[in-house]
Amino acid sequence: MSEERKKRETPLLDELESGPWPSFVKEIKKSDTPMADDLLGVLERSYEEHIGHWKHGGLVGVMGYGGGVIGRYSDVPQDFPEVAEFHTMRINQPAAWFYTSDALRKITDIWERHGSGLTNMHGSTGDIVLLGCKTEALEPTFAELTSLGFDLGGSGSDMRTPSCCIGQARCEWACYDTMGACYDFTQTYQDELHRPAFPYKYKLKFAGCPNDCVASVARSDMSFIGVWRDDIKVDAEQVKAYAASGKLDIQQDVCDRCPTRCMRWDGASLAIDNANCVKCMHCINAMPKALAPGDDRGAAILIGAKAPIVGGALLGSVLVPFIKMEPPYEEIKELLSRIWDLWAEYGKNRERVGEFIQRLGLGNFLEQIGLEPVPEMITAPRANPYVFYQDTVEEEA
Amino acid sequence: MSEERKKRETPLLDELESGPWPSFVKEIKKSDTPMADDLLGVLERSYEEHIGHWKHGGLVGVMGYGGGVIGRYSDVPQDFPEVAEFHTMRINQPAAWFYTSDALRKITDIWERHGSGLTNMHGSTGDIVLLGCKTEALEPTFAELTSLGFDLGGSGSDMRTPSCCIGQARCEWACYDTMGACYDFTQTYQDELHRPAFPYKYKLKFAGCPNDCVASVARSDMSFIGVWRDDIKVDAEQVKAYAASGKLDIQQDVCDRCPTRCMRWDGASLAIDNANCVKCMHCINAMPKALAPGDDRGAAILIGAKAPIVGGALLGSVLVPFIKMEPPYEEIKELLSRIWDLWAEYGKNRERVGEFIQRLGLGNFLEQIGLEPVPEMITAPRANPYVFYQDTVEEEA
Amino acid sequence: MSASPRKTDIGPPHYEQFLPPVVKKNYGQWKYHEILKPGVMVHVAASGDKLFTVRAASPRLLSIVTIRMFADLADRFSGGFLRFTSRNNVEFLLSDPANIDPLIAALKKEGFPVGGIGPSISNCVHTQGWVHCHSAASDASGVVKAVMDDLYPHFANMDMPGKLRIAFACCLNMCGAVHCSDIAILGIHRKAPKIKHSDLPKMCEIPSLVSSCPTGAVRPATVEGVQSVEIIEEQCMYCGNCFTVCPAMKIANAENDGLSIWVGGKVSNARTEPKFSKLAIPFLPNNPPRWPEVVGAVRTIVDAYAANARKFERMGEWIERIGWPSFFRLTDIPFSKYHIDDFKHAGETFRRSIHMRQV
Amino acid sequence: MSASPRKTDIGPPHYEQFLPPVVKKNYGQWKYHEILKPGVMVHVAASGDKLFTVRAASPRLLSIVTIRMFADLADRFSGGFLRFTSRNNVEFLLSDPANIDPLIAALKKEGFPVGGIGPSISNCVHTQGWVHCHSAASDASGVVKAVMDDLYPHFANMDMPGKLRIAFACCLNMCGAVHCSDIAILGIHRKAPKIKHSDLPKMCEIPSLVSSCPTGAVRPATVEGVQSVEIIEEQCMYCGNCFTVCPAMKIANAENDGLSIWVGGKVSNARTEPKFSKLAIPFLPNNPPRWPEVVGAVRTIVDAYAANARKFERMGEWIERIGWPSFFRLTDIPFSKYHIDDFKHAGETFRRSIHMRQV
Ligand code: SRM
Ligand code: SRM
Ligand code: SRM
Ligand code: SRM
Ligand code: SF4
Ligand code: SF4
Ligand code: SF4
Ligand code: SF4
Ligand code: SF4
Ligand code: SF4
Ligand code: SF4
Ligand code: SF4
Predict the structure, then answer these.
(1) Taking CA atoms, what residue in B is nearest to A384?
(2) Nearest residue in chain B measured CA to CA from C215
(3) Which residues of C touch A387 (CB under 8 A)?
(4) Helix (H) or strand (E) run with residue C283 in it
(5) Which of A100, B38, B139, B282 could form a disulfide bond with B83, CB atoms 3.0-4.6 angstroms apart?
(6) Ordered DSSP codes for A96-162
């Protein structure tokens, strides 16, 4: 894609070409398009001035969709005309970011034709981020992508692109099929994904076990975290092998690190008081050959994680302590639609579901969506006496 | 004091005369005054009706004082004329509630002459509570009490009657002289105690060690909790004696209950990693003959405990991690006056100092009272990014 | 007496005059203590001196007749020296161990049993209730008497895993500081105050009344021509603060007042940090004179604790070890939406992890 | 192509077509895994089949040229199959272990080192920065490059006590979800937005702008005759939410923007519950191209952790074990009022016990 152009001087950025870590400056230079050139120029200026040069987006997108494109304009278009418009397209990644070389090449070809040649593999939410194109390029890129079988992801106040850990594709601990579930939910809610109709964004993430390799508890309005209910499976021989290996001190590194200290190691055999196991994964992580999650597997559903804007960050909180994760996930989808209905009706503009629940009160929220309160949802009952009692005796008229 | 009066029928209350626990009904009956009689009568009515029969206080008190008396009126004075007025007087108890039989008798004599003959030994704040008298009795009672060397305690928006644990008078763990300090502060602040001039009440409590036998961390706006800085004193022979006694499993009952697990017991000797001891007292409590607080003793000062009205209950929080407690406590008194000045000026009406600090921000509060922030004051730094930065670069004009 | 100049600001008498000689001599020099039997302990000083303490129960609400009886016993057995504890028990301070048993016998005869030391249930801290306070949603002394009658064996014996502290407060002001007790019994209102519009303008300042309500439920309003206030009932959580500020807002309500049970608080730093009590039972009826529902509920909780907690473990420590779900299962107390916090820091109590015992 | 009917709502391609045969065959049947060496692991299925993974670093911002290079390597060594991880590394999925070393060599030659598996420092999750976002207080890619160059040995070796996850976000929106990272680097603004009163009425809705400010610092005002807003500067804590809502409230400020460092967050449930990151260093200057202050600070924290944490212990677990005061002492990071929370739940972070290591 090279052509003869006068390259910009970028002495500051050039310093970031050296060093052992792969260099994004090299990447931008590799792309070698006029857009990439101007991006380098404007970035060098930011490095000089310590300030960014991008303006608010504005409404750009593809026909019939309300999300998937982030509009971006330069505030110094005269100096960097090629990036005067520099929108990104969010492309819904395949579950767990699996590709064939062939699929990747086809995507790069499309992006060579229409965009900067720069990408993020991947965006923080999980999308393939095609970084930088002009408004006029959006429709043609979209058409070519859909022909290839790809579609846009979410942005704005819609369901965002769901994502998942690698799960059963490679991981021995996956308590349900994360990729299957992620794909299924993504397909079911195409409308919610492309056409913002919520008070604010709603993210779904699927993690196969409590290790949560997709950070769902911190980054998704609804997270599905795999877990089991029965006993941890113990291969006694392999436990001994770990002990013998000398690499692991089973008492100190495993038993003493168990949050409920529900394990006993007598130097020869390991006993687990499974009734007091809180499924933290630690012992299993430490001895993958010897221990494994039980067979009665499913997921816990947590709700409401988000970043700090503006009421403070939230981690997800337990909504369903355990549910079997089996297609077509009807019970969950019914629950989800009750939640969306309630939130869509009573949520304020730019109020994430986690904040909405806190405003409404978790007890009231549960009542509205028809879930029984169970003590697993909380770490402790209220410490304050400010109870809104309802079942009281009314006065006689 | 008995005389011939028609006694009221109190069948419900009478049921509370039986049983092993000492009976307050018997006490009221023992007093056998017309006031006690009517008290029993109105209480029986409350037991029948499930509702109290007292009205708000109103301003009653002794000349020149703004606190120390709780005014109380019956809402059924026609039926129970003797308790139509039924005020309580709060008498500042001697430190740690020590008495001689002689002193107690003299107090009872005064109360026989002027009041209901009923008391609380003691009120929750610590005062001797003389329970029930008429308005006209207040001044004479006060005169006789002061002649005996007693004075009123606090009520309303003043410094409340300070109280303390038994400390060095009997307890081997007292890290400072709680009774001496309690007496000293009480005397220093007589004006603040008797003449409400604060936004709200301000309670002081003195506990000799982290066991906090006077519940200061929950119940005082400022609590002084004894603590030491050097190593726990270990009598190795006595440790062995405890182990040998069979009453204590040193590993399980002591070491495994240490919050930082900083103790090692090898069956023969006990090693404490004192740098990681958080002075919780547990091991010392468990083996009082073997272990003792170190010699470098003083107190931590905590601020802001209170009951839930109305912003929610608070426990005290660390203001000074360690200070030597030596009369005349000048440094502490200077600190206290800076706190009172600030709170008196900026505190809202009925805003306890703990709530005031939360409203102002602990960092700002420290700055205002001239204390350096130290990490011991918190359990963790902020998790939210909402910092009010101050040392920023101003723009050139 | 009235001729002498009026004394003020003298403060309490200096405590030294009330200290037994052995205490004065060994002040700050105590070395260790031992519990000799229920209600009796000895403190040993560096000098070798010993101080024997006998602790007796008290209903706190004491007649002067009883106080004089205590004084007499002190004269007979403890050189005239006695004290009260921070939980309102009475303690006799003896130098001569030979006096211990006679004193215990004399106390018993008067109806004041000995106990409360060590791993036992000590006296129940409490408040005024219908005996004296205008705010009370229940009686304090009566509930305490009924509960302590039932728990008496645990006062008289040291048969608990650790110390178990019970407290009672008759309204949300929590004068009994029940917010940090192993078991707390709390009187509660459950109906918004009834406004006496005729009295209100005379008795109360409307702006400070309006601002007293933490939820903003009290609003200025003109009612039947008078400047008064109204209450948005759905916003009222019955804290009673408006009533404290304004007598014309009576909150007590015979049908709806009652009691709630809270568990797991503590104030000591022993092992774990001080903790607030948490809601166990949102509502039990006022059922004088013996409040059987309350007595039964407390008993259930005490029994579950006694049967399951480890040595030294306080109620809250035990519950945190086994988890709240297990506490509700073990006690058969139903869990409801009322248990879920919805006040200011509610979100901090939501479970934000997978750490659950799956059942 | 434009002639064919417009496709919408097709969603992503089904993942199955991208799975290597060994994965398809053993889907859900994996038995265990082993880390073979830095950046290389093997998963063994119940069938006995093995899947070898080689993980390589990525700057995330990738040129299509590099993506094609990855595709070529996949064709040569892993049957054309590869994936990216949730932390933006690239993983080649091999059936033949003989291909591992040649692949590593080829990757290295292209400048893409292998590592990040096990107890190591994996890729730094990050955001757009000055490369693309209007909100950025710093550059994302540049800081990450500088930091990872410095920490590279810990990516290439498994020499950490446990996993150590670093994340970067360029503004308080925290798209990098830095709120739960072992170490987080966060771009911050420190000046209230400057209002462009000439543009504001055209571009923004005043009521929603006013309500966007969490502290109520934005108030409606008439400025030079136009309906606009004003900012009460003392109330602004620079969250940038007003700017998100209204482009005429530019918050970026060259002199005052910079970075802050946060530590001790995690998301896994392993051992301890997920935790937020907490403020370690409130402000470091923007000093491109290599941000030495930031690189140095991160290095100090990593070194203290590496030297002191126990096996498996994450940053936050280590700090909680030793206590925050010890963390500040060990790293020599000054403690200031900025560290003390003063937001909504501030009181929950005050130390409400005596549990302190007295020094
Ligand atoms: C591209 C991406 C960052 C990246 O470099 O990876 C991104 C970029 C933006 N985010 Fe984000 N967010 C991205 C993932 C996230 C995440 C992480 C996640 O999804 O796992 C979060 C934290 C989790 C969460 O949702 O809370 C996140 C929390 C935010 C917030 C704060 C939301 C909150 O409730 O606190 C905003 C502000 C907003 O919504 O107005 C925001 C807003 C933005 C905007 C649209 C800027 C704005 O103010 O309108 C950014 C556009 C940048 C640009 O120029 O392209 N972005 N944003 C990520 C999306 C890529 C993708 O689709 O894969
Ligand atoms: C590939 C990936 C999932 C994916 O779908 O992409 C993955 C894969 C594995 N994770 Fe993970 N984790 C991956 C992101 C995560 C994340 C998310 C994140 O970092 O943002 C977490 C949560 C981190 C946190 O708590 O902040 C995560 C927490 C874990 C843990 C818990 C570690 C702990 O002690 O807290 C384990 C268990 C272990 O390593 O002992 C784990 C274990 C594993 C295992 C061993 C699972 C298995 O048997 O296959 C995999 C290789 C481990 C490794 O890299 O050392 N994985 N893992 C992600 C690789 C990211 C990368 O490029 O570095
Ligand atoms: C008598 C006593 C209860 C008792 O039976 O022991 C008591 C009785 C009253 N308290 Fe109290 N408080 C008593 C100790 C406490 C304590 C415990 C303590 O001091 O250790 C507390 C909790 C700790 C605290 O200060 O927060 C306490 C927290 C309250 C509150 C709530 C304050 C708050 O900030 O949450 C109020 C309401 C108020 O101040 O308006 C209150 C108000 C009252 C009033 C004055 C009622 C009122 O609304 O005006 C009660 C008068 C009852 C009466 O008829 O005599 N009382 N009050 C205690 C004082 C006796 C004494 O002087 O020794
Ligand atoms: C007399 C009294 C102090 C006073 O000045 O009046 C006192 C005296 C002693 N306390 Fe206490 N405590 C007294 C109220 C308290 C309180 C306050 C309260 O209950 O409201 C507490 C805090 C309770 C809480 O955490 O909720 C308290 C928590 C302790 C502890 C910590 C127990 C624990 O495991 O949490 C100890 C140590 C122990 O017993 O092992 C202790 C130990 C002691 C010792 C052994 C101290 C000593 O060496 O003399 C004393 C006898 C203990 C006993 O009763 O078993 N004392 N002690 C109080 C007796 C009250 C009563 O009549 O029952
Ligand atoms: S979250 Fe669990 S199942 Fe998913 S990849 Fe991580 S360890 Fe495996
Ligand atoms: S999974 Fe966690 S809680 Fe369960 S036994 Fe293992 S270490 Fe303990
Ligand atoms: S608080 Fe400490 S010093 Fe005071 S009586 Fe209790 S145990 Fe003794
Ligand atoms: S006092 Fe507490 S923290 Fe210190 S060694 Fe003893 S048990 Fe451990
Ligand atoms: S708790 Fe309430 S009702 Fe009881 S004494 Fe205190 S203020 Fe009065
Ligand atoms: S009782 Fe409390 S919540 Fe209800 S109106 Fe009065 S002040 Fe407001
Ligand atoms: S963190 Fe802020 S500046 Fe960075 S990409 Fe997200 S919104 Fe933009
Ligand atoms: S930056 Fe945040 S705090 Fe400051 S004015 Fe804007 S919205 Fe308000």
Answers:
(1) B312
(2) B310
(3) 188, 237-238, 260, 279, 282, 338
(4) strand C278-285
(5) B38
(6) GGEEEHHHHHHHHHHHHHHS-SEEEE--TTS-EEEEEE-GGGHHHHHHHHHHHT--B---SSSBPPP
Pairing of strands C278-285, C226-231: unpaired
Task: Tell if the CB–CB gap between A386 and B313 is shorter than 8 Å.
Answer: no
Whether chain D has a CB inside 8 Å of the CB on B308: the answer is no
- What part of B 184-213 touches D (C-beta under 8 Å)? 210, 212
pLDDT per residue rounded down to tens, chain A (397 residues): 444 566 789 999 999 999 999 999 999 999 989 999 999 999 999 999 999 999 987 789 999 999 999 999 999 999 999 999 999 999 999 999 999 999 999 999 999 999 999 999 999 999 999 999 999 999 999 999 999 999 999 999 999 999 999 999 999 999 999 999 999 999 999 999 999 999 999 999 999 999 999 999 999 999 999 999 999 999 999 999 999 999 999 999 999 999 999 999 999 999 999 999 999 999 999 999 999 999 999 999 999 999 998 889 999 999 999 999 999 999 999 999 999 999 999 999 999 999 999 999 999 999 999 999 999 999 999 999 999 998 888 765 4
Dist. CA D193 → ligand 1 center (Å) = 20
Say how many Å lie between the CA of residue A212 and the centre of ligand 2. 7
Q: Which atom of ligand 3 is nearest to the CA of B352?
A: 34
Q: Name the residue of chain C whose CA is nearest to A317's CA.
A: C352
Atom number of ligand 9 nearest to Cα C128: 5
SS3 A265: strand
Cβ-contact C149, C132 below 8 angstroms: no
Interface confidence (ipTM) of the complex:
0.97
- Whether the CB-CB separation of C252 and C158 falls below 8 Å is answered with no
Residue of B nearest to A312 (CA): B384
Name chain A contacts of D146, Cβ cutoff 8 Å.
Answer: 16
DSSP state of D289: T
Closest CA of chain C from B180, distance in Å: 9
Q: How are beta strands B233-234 and B291-292 bridged, if at all?
A: antiparallel
As for ligand 9, residues whose beta carbon falls within 6 Å of it are C 127-128, 133, 135-136, 169-171, 173-175
Contact B21 C43 (CB under 8 A): no
pTM, two decimal places: 0.97
The distance of A374 to chain B (nearest Cα, Å) reads: 24
**Run of H or E including C304:** helix C292-308
**Treating both helix axes as pointing N-terminal to C-terminal, what angle do D140-156 and A24-31 enclose, rounded to 10 degrees?**
120
Q: Does C349 touch chain A (CB under 8 A)?
A: yes
- SS3 sequence of chain B: CCCCCCCCCCHHHHHHHCCCCCCHHHHHHHHCCHHHHHHHHHHHHHHHHCCCCEECCCCCCCCCCCCCEECCEECCCCCCHHHCECEEEEECCCHHHEEEHHHHHHHHHHHHHHCCCEEEECCCCCCEEEEEECHHHHHHHHHHHHHHCCCECCCCCCECCCEECCHHHCCCCCCCCHHHHHHHHHHHCHHHHHCCCCCCCECEEEECCCCCCCCHHHHCCEEEEEEECCCCEECHHHHHHHHHHCCCCHHHHHHHHCCCCCEEECCCCEEECHHHCCCCCHHHHHCCCCEECCCCEEEEEEECCECCCCCCCECCEEEEEEECCCCCCHHHHHHHHHHHHHHHHHCCCCCCHHHHHHHHCHHHHHHHHCCCCCHHHECCCCCCCCCCCCCCCCCCC
d(CA A308, CA B10): 62
- N-term to C-term CA, chain C: 75
Residue among C273, C348, C352 minimizing CB distance to D352: C273
